[in-house]
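Lab notebook, page 48
Experiment: co-folding of the full assembly
Goal: obtain a model of how the components sit together before planning crosslinking
Operator: M.T.
Materials (sequences as entered):
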Amino acid sequence: MADRWLHRLLWLSAMLAALVLGGIVVLLIGRTAPFIAQQGMELLARQWYPGDGEFGMAAMIAGSLAVAVLALVLAAPLAVALAAWLRYFAPGWLRRPALALFALMAGIPSVVYGLWGLLVLVPWINGWVPPGASWLAGSLVLALMILPLALLVTDAALAQVPPDWLHAGAALALSRVGMLRRVVLPHTAPAIASGVVLQFGRALGETMAVLMVCGNVVQWPGSVFEPVRTLTANIALEMSYAAGDHRIALFASGLLLMLVTMALLALSWRLGRRHHGTA
Amino acid sequence: MKQPPTLELDDVHVRYGEHAAIAHASFRVESGEIMALVGPSGCGKSSLLAGINRLTDTIPGCTTRGTITLDGSPLGQWPDAASLRRTVGMVFQQPNPFPLSIHDNLRFPLAEHGVPRRERDERAEQALRSVGLWEEVHNRLGRSALTLSGGQQQRLCMARALVLEPEVLLLDEPCSALDPMASAAVEELIDSLRGRYTILMVTHNLAQARRLADQVTVCWVDNDCGCVVETGGREQIFTRGRHPVTRAYCAGECG
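Observation: model returned without errors.
Model output:
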């Protein structure tokens, strides 16, 4: 009896979540479809002058991708290396507290990372190559934010490696680096990639921390030391005063972000499934 | 071919923290002979095997005491576990080939041990022939080892141990996870290795021990700690065991 009620409750909440998600998509599409149809390829131009009716988002799309990709390039290898080191090389007593620390890091609000970036990172980069608030600053802050979860996902993937293989490797006196390179990492690569793709989605969607350290100049990302503006930061910065087509344009950029995130989620699922298929 | 070494254990103990898995284990495996280690579950047989090639080093809190010698030279004085494990190969209960191709399961360990690339294929073929797998797999060496049957996987694991040219083999219940047909093939293989390697094999299967072993060591559990009850020639242990436990165990009355 209790089971049936729990079942119904869970079903209801699942439906509610799906409904809310569907509602957001319908709202976004409904609000923006006429605008997108009217603007067409103009939306992919480089000029963003909403006051003059120019809504080219290319520079901000590039900004979002640039900041997120560089963050991923910085964080993912480090996360995999750290997770592998903690599991196979570090002294035994270090693993648990280190993982707990990373779990804690994953829970810090993004605005705190942004504050740190603003107070520490930006002045530091400024002393090196001004102005400081830049693509690089955004990517570093994002890298720090996605590192913990990427590391925890990798650790969970490594935990799935059958101990039999490790015993075989030990009995054959194979080096741990060799085992990692030939056996462990190839086997866990799909699961790790699945987690990393999810983190890429998180990096694309992050708003606050990026807004605080990127400088937010709408320009094509040229050098890592120059300011960029991401789509998310743009929405946050302009929504409060946008009206008319300007407002609709911001909705359209929100729709784009949402579609990309959903595509990444689907990719992550596919990668995760492939992992289970061969295990 | 070089004569395989004699393996001798003198008063060996393996402990996990406070708990002793096996204590006072002493016996001698003659050059090229097969010694079967029999006894009920939990009497420390597998722990003893792991103590010989120092796999126990990789288990936190696990310690070994006593003297283990190969041709009289104590293993404790070997420079490193790697060279020891190259000399003393091991095969486990569950077939555990790497998730690589059949070929790479053999070439990867060779590469790790610095065997030049041009020699690897030839040694891999030799190893596959010596376990009777070559005819079955020579036209699909590039396929994943995980596509092989359980018995073939176990013979591949034997080949993987042999490809490093060990002198001693530790076999931890190598047939117990296999069906009767596959088990018979692996048994035949072990029999064919007699004389070329000094073999210490843990088994629960008394009939198998009787078919394969030159010498048999009976282990038992006493006060929650494993111990060696008796060592002797196959026929002596199975027909004229001196210790009452040996007689009862071999008659199937206990264990």
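Interpretation: Residues 2-39 of chain A form the longest helix (38 residues).
Next step: discuss with group before ordering constructs.
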